[in-house]
Amino acid sequence: MHKYFALYRPLNLFFITLAQLLCAYYLDPYASISSLIAKGILWLILGTVACSSFGYWINDFLDKERDSINKVKTFDISTLPTFVIYLHLFVLVILAVFSGLMLSPLFLYINLLTLFLLSLYSLILKNIAFLGNLLIAFLSFVSIFMLLFLFPDIDYALLFHFATLAGVLTLCRELIKDGEDAEGDRITGAKTVPIVFGTSTLNISVYVLLIFIISFSVMSLYHQSMYFPAALRNVYYSYYLLFILIPLYAIAVEVRYAQDKHQYAKLSLRLKYVLATGILSILFF
């Protein structure tokens, strides 16, 4: 049963939910629990979770052959009857549409576009070098930044910082996962980055992206520092240095020499850890 629930990527959904909740509450100076609920935070989270789950299910359904090579120990979605899979997808679409309707036409359009793009990703784009990776990173950015449309009092610069951090780190993880899954991609004919351009190009791309996000974060700290008194500012700087910047730099150094599946798997896990510490840094505000 736990392998079935793994199809939903519960840890990823938890991170998405936590990031949206913390950004909405801590980055809006006028936010309260009651105001978040009144403005529709629960519908926003439900829609985001439904869209994300739809993406996981349709990707696993359409990518059974590759996953059977790359992820031997995961739940085999092909053991489920086809109508059960379609039923899951239908329910998730209904939840995404209904939650959008409960918010506004804008969020309905965002959810519908997200469902369409995730379907397109699973059918075509994930097999095109860089394009599929960029799409998933963009959707990760949007999942945070769209809070501004529901909570206009959120600090724009802070929200942009955390949305960019999520988007760029997601892009790095997607590229690293391509390196991890290169064997299955090669066998099934997928044109992912390591297959088309080689692991050296993949490693350099991730390295450049990580150096960019480190530099971006350092520059962003100036704006963030205005929110803290001197004592707390030093604590925040220490946290950011120890749990975000140094780990990112260590990953950037190591990814340049990554070659095999196990190395990429470890780097992917460490990036997920930095995503978690990045989300938790919102608590300082």
Give structural notes.
The protein is an all-alpha fold. It has one domain (2-284). The protein has helices at residues 2-6, 10-26, 33-39, 41-62, 64-70, 82-103, 105-123, 131-145, 147-150, 156-180, 182-188, 193-196, 199-225, 230-255, 261-280. Helix 2 runs antiparallel to helix 4. The protein is globular, with a radius of gyration of 19 Å. The model has no long low-confidence stretch (mean pLDDT 93).
Record the SSE blueprint:
Elements: H1 2-6, H2 10-26, H3 33-39, H4 41-62, H5 64-70, H6 82-103, H7 105-123, H8 131-145, H9 147-150, H10 156-180, H11 182-188, H12 193-196, H13 199-225, H14 230-255, H15 261-280
Helix pairs in contact: 2-4, 2-15, 4-6, 4-7, 5-11, 6-7, 7-8, 8-10, 10-13, 10-15, 13-14, 14-15
Distance between the terminal alpha carbons, to the nearest Å? 39 Å
**What is the C-alpha radius of gyration, as a whole number of Å?**
19 Å
The number of domains is: 1
**Residues in helices, as a percent range:** over 70%
The overall average pLDDT, rounded, is 93
